[in-house]
Write a structure and sequence with these properties.
Largest sheet: 7 strands, mixed
C-alpha cells in the first residue's frame, strides 16, 4: 500500500459523514400551472409579547394573550413556535441570537419573527427616521433619552440579525407602530399568484401602523392575521397559500376597516439579493388543486380502540427499555474491547471478560440486529483467544532475528495488516517499529492515520504532531493533522494546518488541503470562499470525485441546482473510473453521491428524475436516517 492510497482511505473513512446534509421532509407547494415546488424543510417562529412595562409606558394587557393565541395557530399550521413574554433588551437579543443560530443557518427553513408591544420612532442627525422596539424596562424617551436608547432595540440591529440568518425566507411582523426608511416600507402592495419566483431569498417586514399612530391594546392586526391563517376570512388569491405580499395587502386593507387610525405598512429589505422571493404560509387546508369535494360522512359505530392503544403503549415502553439495554450492551462491549487491547492483560483475563459479556447479554433484542452482531464478534474473539498458539521453535534463524530488530521490516509488515483491516495488529507492530527507531517519522505518520481510521482523533493528533516535530516539511502528515482537528470540531486549528499545506508547491496531493479548506468554509456558510478553494482543488485534479461532489453541494447551497446536478454526475463518473476502492467503500460513495443528486433534482423540480434516483439507490441504503429521508422525499413527489 503506497502512502497516497493510505491518505485516500483515511479520507474515505473520516470524511464520509460530511457528504450527507440533514434533510427533513419538505413542504411542497403547487402553482396554478400544476407545477410542484419544494420549498421548506422546517418552519420556525419566535414570538415576543411585551405588556408589563415598568418605567412609564402604558401597559398592554392583551399582548400576552395575543402572542399565546398566535403561537397556537402557527403550531396548527406546521410551525415550531417559541413564545416569550415581558423581556428586557438582553433577553430579547439572547433569544434572537439563539433563534438565528439554531434555526436560521439552514437555507431551506422559513423563519417568522413576531413582536407585540410598544414601538417608537426617533429621528437621527441625518434626518433619517429609525424605528425602535421598546423593551419592558425602557424609560420614556422624553424623560431619559439615554436610558431609553440603552434599553430599546433599534431596527438597524434587527436588519443585522436578518442578514445573519441564512434561511431562504424570513418574515418580520411588528404589532407596533413606528417608521423607518431602513425597512423600505411602502403602501402599495401587488401580490401575485404562486410562481417559481418564491424560491428566491427574501427578508420581508410588516408593521401594524405608521410612526404617529398609537398601538391599540386590543390588536386588530393580530386577530386578522389569525383569521386569515385559520381560513375564517377570504384569501386575496384563493389557492390555499398566503404569501408575504398577500398578507401585507390583506392587513393594509382590512385593519383600517376596524380602526381607521391604524394603517399597516409592508416592505422588503434594501438588498437586491434578498428582495425577490416571497414568504409562504402553507395552510392546513392544503394548496391549489389538492382539495376535494367534502361529502357528509356515513353513519359509523364508535370504535373501541382501547386495547390496541394499550398494546401500542406497551410496545413503545418495551422498545424504550430495549433501546436502553442495547446502549448499555454497546457501552460494555467497548469496555471489554479496551481490556482486550491492553497488552498488560493476559489471554485468560481477556477471554474471561468476553465470556462475562456473553453471559450478561444472551437475550435477543427484538428491535435490533446489532446485539447479535456484537455477540458474534465476542464469540469469535473468545475462539481466537482459546486456540492454542503455534509453538515457536527455540532455534531462531539469523534472518528472523534480524527482521525482528529491523524497523523498516516492521513498518512494511504493519501495512500488510492495515490493508487487511486489522488496525489493532497494525498499531502493535508500528509501536514496535517506533521503539526500534524513535524518530521514525513515517511510522509515526502511519500510526496517526490508523488512529484516525479508528475514529480516535485525539490519539491521531498526538502522533501526527510528533511526526511533524521531527519533519515539519512532511505535508501528508500536516494535511492529515488538519483532518483530525476538523473531525473534532477544531476548525481554526484545522484551517491553519490546511493553509500551511497549500504552501508546499511540491506536494503531489495538493488538491487535498484545498478540498478540506472548502469543507470548512462550507460548514461556516462562507460559500464564495468554499467555491474558490474547491475550484483550486479541481484545477489540480479534475477527476477528484470528492471535490466534484463537494462543488455540487456548494452550488446547491447557492440555489444553482442545475449546475450542482452536473457536478454530482461528474463525481459519479469519477467513481466509476476509479478501480482503487474496495467494493464496500465504492458502494457507500455511490449511494451517497446519488442521494445528493436526487436531492438536487428534487430542489430543481425535476421530480421524476429525483424519484428514479431515490428508487434506484433505496435497496442499497444501509443508513436508516437516509432511508427515512428518501421516504419523505418520495411521499412529497407522489
Amino acid at each position: 500500500m503506497n502512502k497516497k492510497t493510505l491518505i485516500f482511505i483515511l479520507f474515505a473513512i473520516s470524511l464520509f459523514s460530511a457528504f450527507i446534509f440533514a434533510q427533513r421532509g419538505f413542504k411542497a407547494i403547487r402553482t396554478p400551472e400544476g407545477k410542484e415546488i419544494a420549498l421548506y424543510k422546517g418552519s420556525y417562529a419566535l414570538i415576543v409579547g411585551n405588556s408589563k412595562y415598568t418605567s412609564g409606558w402604558d401597559p398592554l394587557t392583551a399582548a400576552e394573550r395575543d402572542v399565546e393565541e398566535l403561537g397556537d395557530v402557527l403550531r396548527r399550521n406546521g410551525f415550531e413556535a417559541t413564545v416569550l413574554k415581558n423581556i428586557t433588551k438582553s433577553g430579547f437579543l439572547s433569544a434572537l441570537s439563539n433563534f438565528t443560530y439554531k434555526h436560521g443557518q439552514d437555507e431551506d427553513n422559513q423563519l417568522l419573527f413576531y413582536y407585540a408591544g410598544h414601538g417608537h420612532t426617533t429621528t437621527l442627525a441625518s434626518g433619517e427616521e429609525l424605528g425602535m422596539l421598546v423593551m419592558v424596562d425602557a424609560p420614556l424617551p422624553e424623560k431619559d433619552p439615554q436610558g431609553f436608547d440603552s434599553k430599546s432595540v433599534d431596527m438597524k440591529s434587527i436588519i443585522t440579525w436578518a442578514l445573519k440568518m441564512k434561511s431562504k425566507h424570513v418574515l418580520f411582523m411588528f404589532d407596533s407602530c413606528f417608521s423607518g426608511t431602513v425597512l423600505n416600507l411602502r403602501d402599495r402592495v401587488m401580490p401575485k399568484a404562486i410562481s417559481n419566483a418564491v424560491r428566491y431569498p427574501v427578508r420581508q417586514f410588516i408593521t401594524a401602523g405608521r410612526a404617529d399612530e398609537a398601538v391599540p391594546d386590543r390588536s386588530v392586526f393580530k386577530q386578522l392575521l389569525i383569521d386569515i391563517l385559520e381560513g375564517k376570512v377570504e384569501e386575496p388569491i384563493k389557492d390555499g397559500y398566503i404569501t408575504g405580499e398577500e398578507l401585507g395587502l390583506f392587513l393594509k386593507n382590512k385593519v383600517p376597516e376596524y380602526n381607521k387610525f391604524q394603517h399597516p405598512q409592508y416592505g422588503k429589505i434594501r438588498d437586491p439579493n434578498l428582495d425577490k422571493g416571497d414568504f409562504v404560509f402553507v395552510l392546513e387546508k392544503g394548496g391549489l388543486g389538492l382539495q376535494e369535494e367534502i361529502l357528509a360522512p356515513p353513519k359509523a359505530e364508535k370504535l373501541d380502540l382501547s386495547s390496541i392503544e394499550e398494546s401500542a403503549k406497551r410496545r413503545e415502553e418495551a422498545r424504550r427499555k430495549w433501546n436502553n439495554w442495547q446502549e448499555q450492551m454497546e457501552s460494555d462491549f467497548k469496555k471489554v474491547k479496551s481490556i482486550d487491547q491492553n497488552p498488560k492483560n493476559t489471554a485468560k483475563e481477556k477471554k474471561s471478560a468476553w465470556e462475562k459479556f456473553l453471559r450478561n447479554y444472551n437475550a435477543d433484542n427484538p428491535f435490533s440486529a446489532e446485539d447479535e452482531d456484537l455477540r458474534q464478534r465476542a464469540t469469535q474473539r473468545i475462539k481466537e483467544l482459546t486456540e492454542p498458539k503455534v509453538k515457536v521453535q527455540k532455534r531462531v534463524s539469523p534472518r528472523s532475528s534480524a527482521r525482528g530488530k529491523d524497523p523498516e521490516y516492521q513498518y512494511n509488515l504493519s501495512l500488510v495488516h492495515l490493508r487487511n483491516g486489522d488496525f489493532n495488529e497494525a498499531i502493535r507492530i508500528l509501536n514496535k517499529a517506533i521503539a526500534l527507531k524513535p524518530n521514525y517519522n513515517h511510522a509515526l505518520y502511519t500510526l496517526g492515520l490508523v488512529y484516525s481510521m479508528k475514529g480516535e482523533f485525539q490519539e491521531a493528533i498526538n502522533y501526527l504532531k510528533k511526526c511533524l516535530d521531527i519533519d515539519p516539511s512532511m505535508t501528508d502528515a500536516r494535511n492529515s493533522l488538519g483532518v483530525a482537528y476538523q473531525e473534532l470540531g477544531f476548525l481554526e486549528e484545522a484551517e491553519k494546518e490546511f493553509k500551511i499545506a497549500t504552501l508546499d508547491t511540491n506536494y503531489k496531493s495538493i488538491e487535498l488541503p484545498y478540498y478540506n479548506l472548502a469543507r470548512i468554509y462550507l460548514m461556516r456558510g462562507n460559500l464564495q470562499e468554499a467555491l474558490g478553494h474547491i475550484d483550486r482543488a479541481l484545477l489540480f485534479n479534475t477527476d477528484f470525485r470528492m471535490a466534484n461532489n463537494l462543488k455540487g453541494m456548494i452550488l446547491e447551497r447557492q440555489l444553482k441546482y442545475a449546475e450542482a446536478i452536473e457536478y454530482y454526475k461528474k463525481a459519479l463518473k469519477n467513481l466509476q473510473a476509479d478501480q482503487s476502492l474496495g467494493p464496500d467503500l465504492a458502494a457507500k460513495y455511490w449511494v451517497t453521491i446519488n442521494f445528493n443528486l436526487g436531492v438536487a433534482y428534487f430542489k430543481n423540480n425535476e421530480l421524476q428524475k429525483a424519484k428514479d434516483v431515490f428508487v434506484s439507490i433505496y435497496p442499497r441504503v444501509k443508513d436508516p436516517d437516509m432511508k427515512t429521508k428518501i421516504d419523505q422525499y418520495l411521499r412529497v413527489i407522489k
